């Protein structure tokens, strides 16, 4: 049976969220007598990181969030990085701290993230914030998984009872989205580089929901897809010809038409990540200023 | 094909561990000039809790760990409980704090656990310690999942690539064992009360490793078991006739003989839980006294 797969418009969902946030930020800035402020830390001069940071700064500006970027040289040592984070922790004008990853090889992201005050950890990567997800009562949630949950909600896809495969076990995406979906009562299997390929294929073939986050172009094949499945693609891979593709073979999945819904790359999960960074900054600001947040999961 | 299933002797593995710990405690107590000390908090008079605490006190005494139990009345309010925890956090003679669960209904275990200094959280239930498991660099690990990992290791069962079903999504067992097994490169599916029963049965039928932690007597049936599977039973359920059984139908699984290995109830996972509480206490003591621990996962 061939049907038309719905293309999930992450950009629209992100824009709707940003629209709401802009309104909220006006209100809470007035109430607090100041605007939310995000501090970004960039170490070295990774070009992709610079592009990401420019996106984040632009989104912040549009929404009425102040931002400041601290650029440190590539040869910064761990102590200096940690000290900058401590200064930002103590600075009451700063509500959110974003450490742009990856760091140069001589620096430990684990150690640096541990320095961030969990209440200012707008990337949601501090172990305390990750652990809160495991307790079922999250506060600041990593931006991409948070965006995926909103996308599902925006299209009225309830994860409850859905057989779900998460491909990838990173701290940024795979592990937290698996926890969030488990909290939402999906039945989740986490696949990764050490999973047997035939197990992976078998499991995807039985899945109502597939989240791909491994960074391998067109890894998930159209013939693995179950009728009526929902496909969420976190991958952004640039091919030799310059084209951007995800981890799921979007074109052939569309042709086969078995999926109920699929995210495009670009324009799917990507815009949601930046929007949820803004949302986390607003949430951190509210908690710091008022002791609570009006934002729900 | 019927074979003989190996009955995994958790009691022996626990006793071997306690033997090593006793030796280590003698050494580190001498080095530090004091013994490790565990503070236990019991609120109200739940009889099962009293039995568990007696087991823990006995194990501590045998190994050379001091322990003190604070018994609070059932009508203790949250503030008083939190204050006791804060006092124990600040008390340098106390290395581990164990809050016996469940608490009376008027108290929040989440709020109470958040008060515990993560470095003294020998139950491993603080969000910070749970989050460290997600980062792949755990410190204090919840005792039952920690015990299961040791049991697998003791019998040379490497989880890498094994198709694994975890039944149960609790903070105490299901979620942390799923994270630990994912870190150890198993392919893990978490099942729970909202999973479809046919999905659960199908997945168990394909699994090389099954961890059952739902508290339903004999829930996992012999006919669901894959040839050569390893079965780990966390459940302890008392039947009307007084008999203790697990969440896996041990007797029929043994009769069918398809499993490669199975834990009995009692004598399987249970003794490992108490032994790992002792291990966590030693680890916390070492970190507090010397700044590092000699104990590995």
Fold topology:
2 copies of one chain form a homodimer.
Chain A: E1 6-7, H1 10-32, E2 37-43, H2 47-63, E3 66-72, H3 78-90, E4 96-99, H4 109-115, H5 127-134, H6 143-154, E5 163-167, H7 174-183, E6 187-191, H8 197-205, E7 209-212, E8 230-233, E9 237-238, E10 244-245, H9 250-256, E11 261-262, H10 269-290
Parallel strand pairs in A: 1-11, 2-3, 2-4, 5-6, 5-7, 7-8, 8-11
Antiparallel strand pairs in A: 9-10
Helix pairs in contact in A: 1-10, 2-10, 6-7, 6-10
Folded structure, characterized:
The structure is a homodimer of 297-residue chains. Helices cover 43% and strands 15% of the residues of chain A. In chain A, strands 1-11-8-7-5-6 form a 6-stranded parallel beta sheet, sandwiched between helices. A 3-stranded parallel beta sheet of chain A has the order 3-2-4, sandwiched between helices. Chain A folds into 2 domains: 87 residues, Leucine Dehydrogenase, chain A, domain 1 (Rossmann fold, 3-Layer(aba) Sandwich); 129 residues, NAD(P)-binding Rossmann-like Domain (Rossmann fold). The first copy, chain A, is built from 10 helices and 11 strands. In chain A, strand 2, helix 2 and strand 3 form a beta-alpha-beta unit. Chain A is α/β, with parallel strands linked by helices. The two termini of chain A are 36 Å apart. At the A-B interface, helix 5, helix 7, strand 6 and helix 8 of A face helix 5, helix 7, strand 6 and helix 8 of B. Strand 6 of chain A pairs antiparallel with strand 6 of chain B, so a sheet runs across the interface.
